Amino acid sequence: MKIAVLPGDGIGKEIVAEALKVLRALGLRLEMEEAPVGGTAYEACGEPLPRATLDLAKAADAVLFGAVGDPRYDAIPRDKRPEQAILGLRKELGLFANLRPAVVYAELAGASSLRPEVVAGLDILILRELTGDIYFGQPRGIRKLESGKFAGEREGFDTMRYSESEVRRIAHVAFAAAGKRGRKLCSVDKANVLDTSQLWREVVTQVAREYPDIELSHMYVDNAAMQLVRNPKQFDVIVTGNMFGDILSDEASMLTGSIGMLPSASMDERGKGLYEPIHGSAPDIAGKGVANPLATILSAAMMLRYSLEQPAAADRIEAAVKKVLAQGLRTPDIFQAGTKKVGTREMGDAVLAAL
Ligand code: NAD
Q: Atom 5 (ligand 1): residue with closest C-alpha?
């Protein structure tokens, strides 16, 4: 199994180093090759996503990504900025399904802005379609109105659209993911108002026939936004379109209250994925050895589960992370009184020991 390792900028290098330590300790045959991306790559060869890096990512079975972004490059042209690398990788690799788990470990329930009893033990997965919907639909633009009540004014317009095959492929990913978890899938739409959503609901319902052991429900997006803060534990997997998923996945990540703990995956049609923490390069703490490596270590676990068919190894990593938290070890971002503050490397070492 070949893994392209792209640490990137800022804390990217520090946290990916810890994830690699953990991966190497599993005793699996993993071939890992590293390449520059983001500001680091721009510095080395003038491009945030060099050809060689893209080729490596294409040839690999999975990509482990740290983070990109560096304030030193804020003033350079947009197409050379570090953040373009992640957009380019998503596009070039055809990554259309974004998987974002929101897990609240019992020990960290106090970090959430919700009451601990509402979130303790939370374990949900939000699946967002990533390449369609109103963010990409044509036509779009700003035009001058020639007639009607608002004649002479400008209006902005975008087009929400999904084809049947786009809905079908994300639905398959969602049912398959639910099959690896709690076997419950909630499809979120706005079918009471939007034709796009009516088609979405129809297609998801058709696909459900191929997965008789998964319990499917539907929910309107406004209700889903409310239920996520009222009783988030009612969900297992949520599947939704690009815009609704954009909003709901950020809402769900805040249920956990700790950005340094959350992994994510973006997958293509054949199950290949790019795995990364949801946070950025954190320039404010880069190089200080205090970044939380757990989101990246948990991203490696997701990689083993969803792209490399190694669920037992993924379970081992997740259990090790739980154990370390139960031992009371905390990086500064999740520190609470009565626990022991550790740095990036010590946290990685503790996970390794717990393995
Ligand atoms: P950020 O996620 O990097 O940081 C936000 C805050 O969270 C900071 O205070 C940071 O110190 C803290 N934080 C983040 N990860 C942490 C960790 N693992 N452990 C401890 N604390 C952590 O977001 P930002 O500051 O808005 O952006 C910084 C740079 O990252 C920007 O250049 C931005 O474009 C980029 N970015 C990249 C990605 C990506 O690579 N996918 C995602 C988001 C932001």
A: 282
Count of positions (residues) in the chain: 355
SS3 category, 210: coil
Catalytic, 42? Answer no
Are 196 and 309 contained in the same domain?
no
Q: How far, in Å, are 14, 20, 51, 90, 228 from residue 37 at the CA level?
A: 15, 17, 10, 13, 35
Span from the CA of 170 to the centroid of ligand 1 (angstroms): 28
Structural domains in the chain (count): 2
Task: Write down which residue in 231, 263, 295 finishes a domain.
Answer: 263
Asked if residues 254 and 247 have their Cβ atoms less than 8 Å apart, the reply is: no
| Catalytic annotation present for 133 | no
pLDDT tens, N- to C-terminus, the chain (355 residues): 999 999 999 999 999 999 999 999 999 999 999 999 999 999 999 999 999 999 999 999 999 999 999 999 988 998 899 999 998 999 899 999 999 999 998 888 888 889 999 999 999 999 999 999 998 899 999 999 999 999 999 999 999 999 999 999 999 999 999 998 999 999 999 999 999 999 999 999 999 999 999 999 999 999 999 999 999 999 999 999 999 999 999 899 888 878 899 999 999 989 899 999 999 999 999 999 999 999 999 999 999 999 999 999 999 999 999 999 999 999 999 988 899 999 999 999 999 999 9
Q: Indicate whether 193 belongs to any domain.
A: yes
Cα distance between residue 264 and residue 273, in whole Å? 10
Owning domain of residue 34: 1-95+268-355
Q: Determine whether the shortest distance from the Cβ of 259 to ligand 1 is under 6 A.
A: yes
Out of 235, 263, 291, a domain closes at 263
Whether ligand 1 lies within 6 angstroms of the CB of 292 is answered as: yes
pTM, whole model, 2 decimals? Answer: 0.90
* Catalytic annotation, pick one of 135, 268, 341, 349: 135
What the block records as the tokens of 216 is 């499917």
Identify the CATH number of the domain in which residue 277 sits: 3.40.718.10
Of all protein residues, whose CA lies closest to atom 6 belonging to ligand 1? 282
Three-state SS for 11? Answer: coil
Cβ atoms of 63 and 300 closer than 8 Å:
no
Distance 282 CA to ligand 1 centre (A): 4
Residue 215 lies in a domain: yes
Supply the residue whose CA is at minimum distance from atom 42 of ligand 1: 280
Within a domain: residue 317?
Answer: yes
